[in-house]
Amino acid sequence: MSPQVPVVKFNNNLKFPIIGLGTWKSKPDEVYQAVKDAIDIGYRHFDCAYFYLNEKEVGIAINDKIKEGAVKREELFITTKLWNTDHRKELVVPALKRSLELLNLEYVDLYLVHWPMALKEGFGLSPKDENGKTLFGDVSYIDTWKGMEDCVKLGLAKSIGLSNFNHKQIQKIIDIAEIKPVNNQFECHPYFNQSKLIEFCFKHNITVTAFGPLGLPYRPLRPGTTTLLEDPILKNVSEKYKKSPAQILIKYQIQRNVVVIPKSVTKSRISSNIDIFDFTISPGDMELLNSLNKPDGRYILLDDYKEHPDYPFNEEF
Ligand SMILES: NC(=O)C1=CN([C@@H]2O[C@H](COP(=O)(O)OP(=O)(O)OC[C@H]3O[C@@H](n4cnc5c(N)ncnc54)[C@H](OP(=O)(O)O)[C@@H]3O)[C@@H](O)[C@H]2O)C=CC1
Ligand SMILES: O=C1CO[C@H](CO)[C@@H](O)[C@@H]1O
Question: Per UniProt, where does substrate bind (predicted)?
Fold first, then answer.
């Protein structure tokens, strides 16, 4: 039976299922089956991006399931993201239309600015000079936000938000927004628990989505470290609740009222990752998980962008 997934409410009253399926690194042939399996299992929220180069296959899977009568469009919550080379205000609506065409949908539920940093337009997704240096753009994210607002006005996005913005950048958007951001998506797991940024977002009525909630286990390991999934303290908590380490990490976010988007293309994991509504982590064990936080716990650092004037990670949060 499909689990009943709780929802988080946006400041515009849209309901956001608290768990969704991530799709970064899901190969096009794998993601088609993964999305169909996820819908059968009970997922209603899918996290996509133009940058992931698999929106087309996600869209085919969604539309096949709708045609089959397994689910209705209005029961689904689809997020996608504006890539950094499309930050100029005039490019935002066309970029969303391109994603919608790939997804074969009339609207998305949430459209996010993927990063605050613009890249030079017209030279592919990762523009570089002849020495391999990333080519930055000079569009301010304030201008980009005006294009995002146009997406809502045209009915192409039900809501709009941010990703990888620090608190000062969020504040700048809040200060000029006609349509306020409803969400900020950023890296978040017990090794980098982001408590200050979460507190800031909640104070401003902005929901939070945790990416990399399993600690991005595919990343190259730093010498002398293990993956978060293999952390001995997490393993103890997992044994105590008779739930897998991944299930503990997902429930940890949900208990903080943080939306969580674990990625998997493995049916058994897609299923177990949402089988988390039959237990509660005690306040003491939530604290224990919080205590795993490390100053260098962030893994998605985007080294190539460090000299960009809008690089978000020079601020504490
Ligand atoms: N806004 C942004 O800038 C970013 C957004 N994201 C979004 O967040 C999503 C999630 O983050 P992501 O980087 O994928 O990392 P995750 O922390 O979700 O880890 C995904 C990895 O964990 C494996 N996995 C899944 N379930 C389990 C399990 N139960 N036990 C053990 N291993 C498991 C997956 O393998 P397998 O698939 O083989 O099962 C995959 O290799 C992305 O897919 C994307 O949608 C991610 C990065 C940046
Ligand atoms: O979602 C994402 C996946 O990873 C990329 C890094 O290579 C990021 O740019 C992006 O945020």
Answer: 114
DSSP 8-state symbol, 161: E
> What is the separation, in whole angstroms, between the first and last Cα of the chain?
40
Q: Three-state DSSP class for 271?
A: helix
* Angle of CA points 144, 150, 156, to nearest 5°: 115
Catalytic site includes residue 52: yes
| CA 72 – CA 88 distance, rounded (Å) | 34
Rounded to 5 degrees, φ, ψ at 46 are -130, 130
Given the DSSP bridges, would you call strands 21-22 and 15-17 parallel, antiparallel or unpaired?
unpaired
Closest among 53, 56, 51, 62 to 20, alpha carbons compared: 62
pLDDT tens-place string over residues 158-213 = 999 999 999 999 999 999 999 999 999 999 999 999 999 999 999 999 999 999 99
Q: Cα dist. 281→76, 119, 123, 262, 278 in Å?
A: 28, 42, 48, 18, 10
pLDDT in tens, 218-265: 999 988 889 999 999 999 999 999 999 999 999 999 999 999 999 999
Catalytic residue (choose from 32, 43, 52, 111): 52
Q: CB 151: neighbour CB atoms within 10 A?
A: 24
236 forms beta bridges with none
Known binding residue 114? Answer is yes
pLDDT in tens, 5-30: 989 988 778 899 999 999 999 999 99
Residue given tokens 């509660």 in the structure block:
280
Residue 253 tokens, joined: 């976010």
